Amino acid sequence: MIRFLHTADLHLSQKEKEYSLSVLQEIVSAAREEECTHILFCGDLFDRNNDIAALKEDVKTILKKFPGKILYIPGNHEELGLPEGTYPISADLSPMSYPQKGESYKLWTEEIGGVDAEFFGFPFNRNLDYSNIQFNEKKVQYRIALLHGTETKLVEYLGPSPEEADSILDSKPFLEAKFDYLALGHIHSERSERSASLLKAYPGSPRVVSSGEFGPRTVNIVSLGKNGAPVVAKRILSSAGEYKEFSLSATLTGEVPDLSKIQALVSEKDSVRIKVGGIVEDEHTVVEILERFSKTLVCRKIETKTNDLRTSSALIDNPVAKIFYEKLMFKKEHWNSPDVPDWNEILVLGLEQIEENAGKN
């Protein structure tokens, strides 16, 4: 049996060296535990071209712990920092095998335990027309392609990042050439689709690279048996953590009541964004509370946003709001009933209604 671990978009970087290399170590460990014969890195293994020279020795040391073969294609990020048209790989990145400068693709042929397969590795190319490639007649059980780009049937929305519209892939030539599995990279969220006998799959980035990449980070474990189609299983990488976002409301006095609940919902590996909104008397109070909380929260990275905060003083500059505020405060001061209403909630709702209807006839 041939079994490979399919991953892409690890974005190893000097800025996040310890974190990104720890995920690479888990990828290699996972491949060993799953008894994989191959690891496929389908582009953007490095975040920028200068990260290759800076991290190559660490990467090679980690990869040498894998006893099987490692196939790699450069993606668009390996080109970053280079003049346009420059081939991104000039360093020795063994034990990985990859297309060399001038090769439109590299072919690897494997036979293990009575199962044979062809692996075609295509380096990232914005202008490559896959329909012009002449594939020989298929004489093996499996054909696998390593590709980096946007398969439009799997990615409906091409934006807002220009990267999503970069290197459009057409899977039709691969379907006609009887490929069985397209090992895709470039899109950071996991997705897959079967077209007849062809399975097209993005495993998603194996670590949190950018904000908004929700959910566990995974790799694909793909098994090729003597009979049948590729069998795909997901494996979660615990060292990658998750991206988690919390939207909270501040009270008029600047307190954020639900802030204390977050610690129980995150791990030390997680990337966290906290967004706080609402109407407050002084937004600096909220900022100070968030700064203190950020120092105590145990996580990999934390970001706080207060863009949705509004100050009550700014709203009360509205004449109608000012009258509403003064009357509400008078009523609060002279309230005698034991059933005390939530004055803060009444104030916020009232000011929001006044703001919403401002300028309307």
Quick summary:
One of its GO terms (molecular function) is exonuclease activity. With 361 residues, the protein is α/β, with parallel strands linked by helices.
What report would you give on this structure?
The chain is α/β, with parallel strands linked by helices and 361 residues long. The protein folds into three domains: 2-236, Purple Acid Phosphatase, chain A, domain 2 (4-Layer Sandwich), CATH 3.60.21.10; 243-312; 315-358. It is built from seven helices and 17 strands. It has helices at 17-33, 49-63, 172-176, 283-296, 312-316, 319-333, 343-357; strands at residues 2-7, 38-42, 69-73, 96-97, 106-112, 115-121, 142-148, 150-151, 168-169, 181-185, 191-195, 198-202, 218-224, 231-236, 243-249, 271-280, 301-311. Helix 1 (17-33) runs parallel beside helix 2 and helix 6 runs antiparallel to helix 7 (343-357). The N and C termini lie far apart (74 Å). InterPro entries: Calcineurin-like_PHP, DNA_Repair-Maintenance_Comp, Metallo-depent_PP-like, Mre11_N. This is DNA repair exonuclease.
CATH architecture label of the largest domain: 4-Layer Sandwich
Task: Give the terminus-to-terminus CA distance.
Answer: 74 Å
Strand content of the residues, in percent? 25-35%
Determine the CATH superfamily of the largest domain.
Metallo-dependent phosphatases
CATH topology value of the largest domain:
Purple Acid Phosphatase, chain A, domain 2
As residue ranges, the low-confidence spans are: none
- Rg over alpha carbons: 27 Å
Question: In which order are the strands of the major sheet placed?
Answer: 4-3-2-1-13-14
CATH class annotation of the largest domain: Alpha Beta
Sheet with most strands:
6 strands, mixed
Task: Give the helix/strand class.
Answer: alpha/beta
Count of the domains = 3
Number of DSSP helices?
Answer: 7
Helical fraction: 10-25%
Number of strands: 17
Order of helices and strands: EHEHEEEEEEEHEEEEEEEHEHHH
Mean pLDDT: 91
Broad shape: elongated
